[in-house]
Design brief:
Chain B: This is Spermidine/putrescine transport system ATP-binding protein. Chain B: Residues 40-270 form the ABC transporter domain. The complex is a heterodimer of chains A (315) and B (373). Chain A is mostly helical and 315 residues long. Chain A has one domain (85-308): Orthogonal Bundle (MetI-like fold), CATH 1.10.3720.10. Helix content of chain A is 71%, strand content 1%. Chain A has helices at 15-25, 27-55, 75-79, 83-116, 120-135, 138-149, 154-161, 165-173, 186-210, 214-222, 227-256, 260-263, 271-279, 285-308, and strands at residues 60-61, 68-69. In chain A, strand 1 (60-61) and strand 2 (68-69) form a beta hairpin. In chain B, the strands form four sheets. A six-stranded mixed β-sheet of chain B has the order 6-7-8-3-9-10, sandwiched between helices. In chain B, strands 13-17-14-15-16 form a five-stranded antiparallel β-sheet, with no helix packed on it. In chain B, strand 4 and strand 5 (101-102) form a beta hairpin. The longest helix of chain B has 18 residues, at 202-219. The radius of gyration of chain B is 24 Å and the shape is elongated. The chains are: A mainly alpha (315), B alpha+beta (373). Chain A binds chain B through residues 213, 215-216, 218-226, 229, 233-234, 237-238, 310, 313-314, and chain B through 86-88, 107-109, 113-115, 117, 119, 121, 123-125, 134-135, 137-139, 182-183, 186.
Amino acid sequence: MSLSTLDLPDPHDGALRRLSDLLVRRARLLTLLLLVPPLLWLGLVYLGSLFVFLGQSIFSIDEFSGTIVREPTTATLLELFRPANFDIVQRTVAIAAVVTLLCAIIAFPIAYYAARYAGPRVKAGFYLAVMMPLWSSYLVKIYGWKLLLAKEGAIGWFAGRLGLGGALEAWLALPLVGGPSLSVSYTGMVLTFTYLWLPFMILPVQAALERVPAHLIEAAGDLGAAPGLVFRTVILPLAMPGVVAGAIFTFSLTLGDYIVPQIIGTSALVLGQAVYMQQGTAGNVPLAAAFSLVPILVMALFLTLAKRTGAFDAL
Amino acid sequence: MRDPAQDFAQDFAQRHSSLTTLPDRLAMHAPAPPPVTPAVRFAGVVRHFGTVRAVDGVDLAIAPGEFFAMLGPSGSGKTTCLRLIAGFEQPDAGHIAIFGESVEGLPPYRRAVNTVFQDYALFPHLCVGDNVAYGLRVRGVGRAERDTLAREALAMVKLAGMEARRPAQLSGGQRQRVALARALVVRPKVLLLDEPLGALDLKLREEMQSELKSLQRALGLTFVFVTHDQGEALSMADRVAVFNEGRIVQVGPPEQVYERPATRFVAQFVGSANVLGAAQALALGGAERPSSLRPEKIALLAPNATPPMGAAVVEGIVEDVSYQGPVRRVAVRTSGGPSLVATVPASASGVAIGDAVRLAIPRAALQPMESEG
């Protein structure tokens, strides 16, 4: 049979095919069908309840009866600036900033290697290595770190074997970052957070670096820039959106966490613990809502600053 | 009003006074035999990727001030040769010298050559002005001076006043000009162009061809131009090197490469050609050597016309006719001979498939080749 005489039947015209006809002709309908369920979930259930909760911050609590006084007031919000509360805010933001910085510094070389040098097999191994810690329980990882950081733990033992026991002691003797042992110090808390959130920094940075065309790096070298300068003037600015995306994760995850500081770290509270306590044991929902506003405002400020410095110019 | 483009050219010439004393023959477009110190010299250069020999023993000498085209199909090694000059690749064997100085082991940022990339490779996070000034910035030129130089360079490529735009806001042709300005503003000794016109549409491409050519003439700069478009190579270059499978198969002025192709590959890649075996060439009055025959040299004889002097006449049947604007391409199966393609003026209508025709083939049109390969 020759091709010119070949007679193919039309595909069977079923209900699904006719539905496809309708959706192809009316693209808007398809968009609507795809968006309505998530918008209902995100808009009403999630954002709605979030705003209802945050809205409580303009109420106050009656000191004697412990009931919520439903009259608008700024008293609760101003309470955040009381030294005891403001301390919590400052401490948490500082910890989050250090964790973010450490994550960025550790993640960049790893991401750079994976994006620019790793072959397909190595890259598959890289993804596995980065993602695997995320598969295990969050609590198990924290308790694992508690053991590593404990006075008789692996880190102390290693430091001792390497003759760095003195250095560890000296570090722990420092004010603020030190403490009786790593497992009850800010240092230990920051290390644990850095470990926990590192994948959230590596992946976006790697994705951003992978989008930097090799030709751009060659062009910079061609125009006379030595590798260090190429890194500063081309690679880093182009990877910045990825770093900022990673920082959003590491920063906000640290700001909101209340479990790590409870297991590892000092007795001083962080934001997450304050929210947990205020709305739980203390029953002061307005103050908990006020505390919850802080991470949102801090993130907004962070993104504004990032935009000002041109971090998104390459987008 | 001073013309910034002219200023730039003068300034450029002053800084490169050695280049202003170009031999006159270059200005007259004549072929340039390699002078004492070539701008670029390859000696037995080999570069392989795994088992693929991308560049397989290339020797060449490009004269200062020459517009040199590297022509070949994709994968023929021409772009790798360009990257070897730029320093993005290092040869596995052989030597490369730029203006007499070996560039062995020199990274790109230590070479006085600059590249215009195929995809332009403009920095998306910098405005057009900063893109052009990039090479000056990394050399530590002050803000004010580099802005002035960048403005001049942009004026030279007819993009005055575009400094504040982002590359994403420009058209393909404009990006191409920015890439050109960016490479020229740092005063390279050799400018490398990697298929710079490939992404432009036909009209713009023709415009840029003549602009590039006049820019090159005004600056007296060595251009090494990689292309797979034979028309582009023929119309712009002083000399063309035809690449195939990692080797140069022929180097010479465009006329020579077109009129006297050395091999079957050159004959068919540069323009189109009928390739005849030794016996067929002999039968048509040529030498007993494999020969090429350009379709436009074959004439279609009117029924009663007498053939011109020194031409062989063959009879045949028309197998195919296609209209190509200015010409018609006629494929003829000759009686007992090869199938030949002739291009005739499009006005010569009335040739139809199945017609019996007579072809006149001037003996001088048969070009013996070194080899049939």
